Amino acid sequence: MAKRILNEYRFFDPDKNTRDVAYELYQIVRDLPIISPHGHIDARLLLENKPFPDPTELIIIPDHYVYRMLYSQGIPLELLGIPAADGTRVERDHRRIWQIFGDNFHLFVGTPTGAWLRHEFAEIFGISEVLNSKNAMKVYNQIVGKLQTKAFLPRTLFERFGIEVLTTTEAPGDTLEYHKKLKLSSLKGRVIPCFRPDSVVNVLSRGWKAAIDGLSKAAGIEVGSYKNYIKAIENRREYFKSLGAVSTDQGVESPWTHKLSTARSEAIFERALAGKATEEDARGFTANMLMEMARMSVEDGLVMQIHTGSFRNHNRHIFDRFGLDKGADIPVQTEYTRNMSELLNEFGNDRGFTIVVFTLDESTYSRELAPLAGHYPAMKLGAPWWFNDSIQGMKRFRESVMETAGIYNTVGFTDDTRAFLSIPARHDLSRRMDSNFLAGMVARHIISFEEALVLCKALAYDLAKKAYKL
Amino acid sequence: MAKRILNEYRFFDPDKNTRDVAYELYQIVRDLPIISPHGHIDARLLLENKPFPDPTELIIIPDHYVYRMLYSQGIPLELLGIPAADGTRVERDHRRIWQIFGDNFHLFVGTPTGAWLRHEFAEIFGISEVLNSKNAMKVYNQIVGKLQTKAFLPRTLFERFGIEVLTTTEAPGDTLEYHKKLKLSSLKGRVIPCFRPDSVVNVLSRGWKAAIDGLSKAAGIEVGSYKNYIKAIENRREYFKSLGAVSTDQGVESPWTHKLSTARSEAIFERALAGKATEEDARGFTANMLMEMARMSVEDGLVMQIHTGSFRNHNRHIFDRFGLDKGADIPVQTEYTRNMSELLNEFGNDRGFTIVVFTLDESTYSRELAPLAGHYPAMKLGAPWWFNDSIQGMKRFRESVMETAGIYNTVGFTDDTRAFLSIPARHDLSRRMDSNFLAGMVARHIISFEEALVLCKALAYDLAKKAYKL
Amino acid sequence: MAKRILNEYRFFDPDKNTRDVAYELYQIVRDLPIISPHGHIDARLLLENKPFPDPTELIIIPDHYVYRMLYSQGIPLELLGIPAADGTRVERDHRRIWQIFGDNFHLFVGTPTGAWLRHEFAEIFGISEVLNSKNAMKVYNQIVGKLQTKAFLPRTLFERFGIEVLTTTEAPGDTLEYHKKLKLSSLKGRVIPCFRPDSVVNVLSRGWKAAIDGLSKAAGIEVGSYKNYIKAIENRREYFKSLGAVSTDQGVESPWTHKLSTARSEAIFERALAGKATEEDARGFTANMLMEMARMSVEDGLVMQIHTGSFRNHNRHIFDRFGLDKGADIPVQTEYTRNMSELLNEFGNDRGFTIVVFTLDESTYSRELAPLAGHYPAMKLGAPWWFNDSIQGMKRFRESVMETAGIYNTVGFTDDTRAFLSIPARHDLSRRMDSNFLAGMVARHIISFEEALVLCKALAYDLAKKAYKL
To answer: Do domains B2-40+156-467 and B51-152 have the same CATH topology?
Structure first.
């Protein structure tokens, strides 16, 4: 019923041959369970299962995809209620913020955020109107009303969305208490942690020292040396694994991999503890830790993920006032062939090891990533990420990667979202685009319908499940 | 009537769903007035309003888009009548040159130059045949006949083309005398200058010293120091503004931005005056002047434009014999995220400031430019430029940029032409391609027809008018 | 008859307008003779004209396109019978290897290798089934049966494929004995060598010294100095030319071109002979040899080809065990505008000289290569190569290159294959894609059908014949 609001054929090619096949393929995968092998939902949300407070808190404030676009058109983040780290007062009237959102909803026309939001309004809340200045308050009230009902509690939605596995992302010092309790709960579907050591790897980041303390405490190992640091990380990986983790993740600007001697690692670690690490130290240490994390994955079986090529906190003003992850991370050119050479030579031929690479640099799809994944047994390509997690982005990814890497060196869709409601919207869009891509190949007689069917299910479900050993 | 010669549906997708919507959108924007916010037409042409001498002088000799393609196939520029700076004799028989053009017109098949020329022949001159060896002289005569009539005088054409605003490009030392007089003329539509300081910014360019003298004279300030240099530039900006200028423009190989200390700037300036500036001096001085020009724009409100990534005068033989702008400028890889960081951190959050960036490096569309424009309030993306001002180039631009930057962080179409007759041809092609792009989204149910309508007008007219404060 | 197995409209756009035009164009070029101006077939195969031993030996073992995909999915090369250089025992049972191939044939779905293989099975062997686990042995037997017949002897196939010219690739020391004898044979069609000096140019490659000895012997010149080295190369070019060669080829990671002084070249050469050449020596020597090879081409008229941007032998384990060309070469970012500047300035304006550039870096198509080819008379663009020799790769190439370089600055299709049976499959795919690309332009009213017809023949036959002076 709610489904009628949006056109059933949306995102498919208008050509009838392609569209009809796409629709047929899509029918088969649309309701498959969701595997979400990487993302940023807080496990606490599902444990506590409290009603979402209001639409602004649910949709705008946690989602930098949404407010960075408003910001780009001159709307200060203060007016959007984004919490300031420096004590600046920000707008607290969530209706007023929502009204600004309504006034500017046209900015999202043709963007993936726009597509997901329309999906959320229509499919989740059953709202048929497109948000605008006039109906903003009416829509706000409609959503507020629903959020108070049991049908819109986090767990109810989780199950309604058909989530089979949801992976969250945690720091090494995290106690995973919510995960522990969730394991014991009646929630249908698994919620599992993912080990992300960035805060203890980047020796120059502001909170490194505190993160090391957290690591010490969590591991019960005094992390006063590189040797103990490595031990503590191995210890935490084991702990994460005991709570269901199947993967790790690292966000690195450059995918340069390089093993340092233990002596050199110790020296850098010492300098870092003394607050005297240099840029070169940081760079070397990260390259070394990519090697170490790969080695550990070979040993403990956790799938290694790397998210590469984001220049974090490009806008210092925004960073100083609002902190990390505020829509001011900008991609940079990224090189894989030379940078990953050491890691792939050391571990890439190991059939038990899997490294999933995500990029923001599309020029590397056909030039570097597909050829690497099309050769090394360990290497797989992650789904189009962030700015590329979009209709055209998915199309370019498949068109650039499929012919060299095939479909079996990719790992299905990853939503990577902080916006809970966008999970089904993102998976639906992905399933539509994959159905359409395959339909295009059927219509061009490159593959048969039967082959498309197998591939379509693989992309929607099987590949993620297999790659992440779920 | 003349319009019947070319297919009404040209450049639209052949799929009927898309094509019909495209055509409907196009009907609404095709006759909107032309805003040309950046280009290289000489204001004198419109002031003097003399008949164009002949087809060769009008279409071939001023347009390096045309003759570089002929050159690439082995036809010497000397035979095409391109004036040689070194005194070499070149062909003077314009009929003979036109015949070569006719003999080789097939080289332009499938190129934007080919599309524009066909538009010019058909829509402006009412010539229905495609140029070839046999009809070259007949066509030449037909055009010659028309050029003698009042209907083909520059001003008549200007008004026939429906130009509302035409921006030219001038050096700091330019007196703008033609602009001054044009302001008093009866010409419908505005012709306004744009301040382009390249000749006084690049301290290593051959004519730098002479350009500094021109600046001194024009500003009435003895430019013997960096301090006075800055004053003189500010002075000339003010003067340009008084004659209607709304923008500046800078052509830079690299968009590296970096503020130098005044002392260092003075030192470089001194060395430059003494003819002793180094490559590093030139690089630093340009980076510094991008910062200074941005500061001035924040102060005086002129929109800042940068055209980046062209390796000028790649072919020394051509440069030595024929000089600048002879079709031998070749793009290079360009980096924006790091290079523009200093400028954007300093001025990018200023909502009163606008910087429009043009690139020749398409790999930066989705990776750097769209994310930057999708975050910083001041940053906007210019239209696909030069080699990318084409059917496929426009398609790639929209597909790569729209999803991350939306449409409101772009500024509509810019023709950037030296070929007067190509203005309506270029805008028509752009309007067709934008109509088609939006129609594709309608046909895929990504946006509604009503939304497409608003966007289509925005791309054809509103965005340029707003971005350039016209 | 066999042709019915595969859909007649395969690879064409599903839109009826485009498809019908594409099919009409394709009908005209499908049976044109094949010009294969660059590839890696062994002339001995055609001279000896022995039956192919079996399907595994014919299709899997010589083709790294095939086995690198199997390897990427965890199948060791040892199990695929790839001969090990280090004495490791590998699978010898060709039926067992073929069974693995059948078990994993789905990995090739949607890849160009998959498309070529289907063509080979259907069009060459008349096998209508898609290979799979179950029918693998049946198909094996069918092929074995055919390979014993006269119809499947190399020469019979050569003539059946309609090959007019086949260019092979040889090292400077090669005696070309098979070419000499083939010239005297009754084979319809020409088989000509191509001079590839890589083994004597890269002073750091393992076999350099041996290759220099081979050069000495073949040229009858004691190559103990750079001077004699150059003489010997000139001598061998002349010899290759006498046996029909029309071209040279160089594989270089970077296209950096730079003339060294004779003194410096001599010094490097001496160090190389003494086994003391450095990385910088090797880099400079290669840059210098690109200049020298261009000079020689200007003098002797051989077309110069360069294949750029492959990081060879990325996987040391594979290299150590199996040697060169085992599917472990990975592309790297490549720069042409600056790197080729010296060569193009020196020789690029020479209308008698032709340099054909092949790239693995698609981001350079519209940014660097098309603008360079669209300006310099000597420069032409080679067909999409290796990973880009695919349906989408060809589409991207044409879409990125055509508008700036036109079609006459490209040189038609190059199969560059080591897999004899794939020659007709690759040319057929290319002809289909070019037909489809041109049909798309006809359907968009960018070009007329008559223009498309001329271009289609040019792409399938004329351009290669003209560019390589055949």
So the answer is: no
The pLDDT of residue C1: 37
B307-337 pLDDT, tens per residue? 999 999 999 999 999 999 999 999 999 999 9
CA of B435 to nearest chain A CA: how many angstroms apart? 14
Contact C451 B13 (CB under 8 A): no
pLDDT computed for residue A77 by the predictor: 98
In angstroms, the separation between the Cα of residue B14 and the nearest Cα of chain C is: 6
Pick the CATH number of A2-50+153-467 from 3.30.70.1350, 3.20.20.140, 3.30.300.30, 3.40.50.1010: 3.20.20.140
Any chains having at least 3 CB pairs less than 8 A from chain A are B, C
Render pLDDT for C28-75 as a digit per residue (tens, 0 to 9): 999 999 999 999 999 999 999 999 999 999 999 999 999 999 999 999
Q: Looking at domain A51-149, what is its CATH homologous superfamily?
A: uronate isomerase, domain 2, chain A (1.10.2020.10)
Q: Chain B residues with CB inside 8 Å of C447's CB?
A: 109-110
Q: Which residues contact C76 (CB under 8 A, 6 or more apart)?
A: none
CATH topology of domain B2-40+156-467: TIM Barrel (3.20.20)
Positive or negative: CA dihedral C379, C384, C388, C391: positive
Architecture per CATH, C51-151: Orthogonal Bundle (1.10)
Cross-chain residue pair C72–A351, CB shorter than 8 Å: no
Confidence band for A5, pLDDT divided at 50, 70 and 90 = confident
Which pTM was predicted?
Answer: 0.98
Q: Say whether C344 and B315 touch across the interface (CB within 8 A).
A: yes
Testing the interface with B: which of A18, A387, A388 to mutate, by most B Cβ within 10 A?
Answer: A387
Class of domain B51-152: mainly alpha
Q: Does domain C2-49+153-467 have CATH number 3.20.20.140?
A: yes
Q: What is the ipTM of this complex?
A: 0.97
Measure CA B159 to chain center: 20
Q: CB A337 to CB C330 under 8 A?
A: yes
Kindly state the average pLDDT of the residues A440-465.
98
Q: Is there a contact between B314 and C344 if contact means CB atoms under 8 Å apart?
A: yes
**What pLDDT, in 10s, does the model give residues C199-221?**
999 999 989 999 999 999 999 99
Structural domain spans, chain C: 2-49+153-467, 51-151
Q: What is the mean pLDDT of chain C?
A: 97
Q: Which of B17, B375, B407 sits opposite A327 (nearest CB)?
A: B375
User: How far B470 CA sits from the closest chain A CA (Å)?
Assistant: 19
Does the distance separating the beta carbons of B387 and C447 come in below 8 Å? Answer: no
Q: Which residue's entry shows tokens 């032998």?
A: C313
Indicate whether A4 pLDDT > 80.
no
* Listed residue (C393, C398, C424, C418) closest to C409, CA to CA: C398
